[in-house]
Amino acid sequence: MITVYGDPATYLVVWKTLVRIIEGVVICMLIGTALGLLMGRERNVEAFFDSWIMVLLTFPAICWAFLSVLWFGLSEIGPILTIILIVFPFVTMNIWEGTKAVEKGLIDMATVYRANRSLMIRKVIIPQLMPFFFSALRIALSLSWKIALVGEAFGVGSGVGQKLIYWFEDTRVDMMLAWGVSFMIFMVAIDLVVFRLWEKRTFAWRHKIAS
Amino acid sequence: MDGKEFVVLDSISLHVDEGEFAAIVGPSGCGKSTLLNIIAGIETHDPDEGGSVEVFPRAGHSTLRVGYVFQNARLLNWLTVEGNIQFALEAQEIPKERWRELITKYLEMVGLEGQEKNFPLNLSGGMQQRVAIARALAIEPDILLMDEPFSHLDEITARKMRFDLMDILTHAKPTILFVTHDLGEAVFLSDHIYMMSTKPARIFKQIAIEVARPRKPEDPVIFDLEKELVREFFSVLDAQD
Fold first, then answer.
1. Of the spans A10-14, B2-6, B21-25, which averages the highest pLDDT?
2. Which of residues 137-196 of A touch B (CB under 8 A)?
3. Residue A208 lies in a domain
4. Angle at B10 between CA B200 and CA A114, to 5 degrees
């Protein structure tokens, strides 16, 4: 196990996987947020995607992983696409729920004061969607890293997933755990440092209630 | 669409002069808020049904500025007190150079000086409503609409707020259309009272309150007027039933 943590090559492998996860999460957030907002705004878009989102949510993750390999072979696209297909429906759901929670009273207030579109979006709508955005981001990240490993195990010949399958074939439980735990620590650290701080800053107006 | 139309407002006619404080008093569900919302432009009236709402901007204003104080404060909780007022100023495209001066002036007027950087959720309900009043006054509105602004406050706070509003109005003199179901409040604050009944909503009485300002809530003249108007209200409502 020491050999895993002591070897600089380990961090390169983790980095590779991390980049894939981040790419996947960013794309998921973009697609999911855009679609979620659109569903909140347009009735027919909502009617159309309402059931499709459910279909995507229930489609087995493992199928996407295999299909990605079949469609794209051992390429970089495979694991990322797997992440996107599985995770973006969750993001969409969250943001869509968020659009329903936007308070009409505040929209009316802003309308009376003649807020233009940009002001309305920046100061009235986005702040109300932020809690949903954060919860979507958290879900996206926690799901993505698990999916990334599965994708890597089947698809590309690199990253933490590949290491896991390599040691699995060698029946080395200790090495598998070493890789799994090392990666978990990374993800928890990201969650703690990046998201908690970011969230705390964004919701400063809420935390002050306690003071 | 099948069937019946629900007439919310029928033969409502009122005229509010510049600088006047007019109150519309009526039971819940008589369409008072609908009327304010039509004036504010958040609900529309059917032009085929006839009727019109005209509000003229004051000299010097290119567009109509409407200030609105709702039943609850409707503040943007993620913005500071100052930020909330800035929001209205920015929305009305009031030049940035004037913001500082307007914010300070009106926050002081509602008794919230020093609270600029505070967040609304740190304030009591009464103070939040004061911010909403400052926000409405800060845009120096052509008309200030107030929809039962004190009804969500406890009676002691509400009383203090009414008193302070009266005081504020000696400094700022906006045209106000005030909706309430509280006759005492209406008599105490207004120059004119329009009394409304329900189903269909119509104004059945209009009365000028000619009591000199500053008024005192314990003034017997005000109290007698209130009693008289309450009696009248009941006679109309009873006749309907």
1. B21-25
2. none
3. no
4. 115
Q: Hey, what domains does chain B have and what are their CATH numbers?
A: 1-65+141-241 (3.40.50.300), 76-138 (no CATH)
Tokens of B196: 């409304």
The whole-number pLDDT of residue B9 equals 61
Q: What is the pTM of this model?
A: 0.83
| pLDDT recorded at residue B150 | 94
Buried b (16+ CB within 10 A) or exposed e, B70-85: bbbbbbbbbbbbbbbb
CA distance B172 to B159: 20
**C-beta separation of B5 from B46 below 8 A:** no
The CATH number for A31's domain is 1.10.3720.10
Which domain range does residue A161 map to? 2-203
* Count: domains in chain A: 1
B161-219: pLDDT as tens digits:
999 999 888 888 889 999 999 999 999 999 999 998 877 777 888 899 998 888 887 88
Q: Is residue A149 part of a domain?
A: yes
ipTM of the complex: 0.88
Q: How far apart are CA A159 and CA B61, in angstroms?
A: 65
Could you tell me which residues of chain B have a Cβ less than 8 Å from any Cβ in chain A? 37, 40-42, 63, 66, 68, 70, 72, 74, 76-79, 87-88, 90-92, 119-122, 139
Instruction: Look at B76 and A105 and tell me if their CB atoms are within 8 Å.
Output: no
For B22, counting Cβ atoms within 10 Å of its Cβ (0-12 exposed, 13-18 middle, 19+ buried), the class is: buried
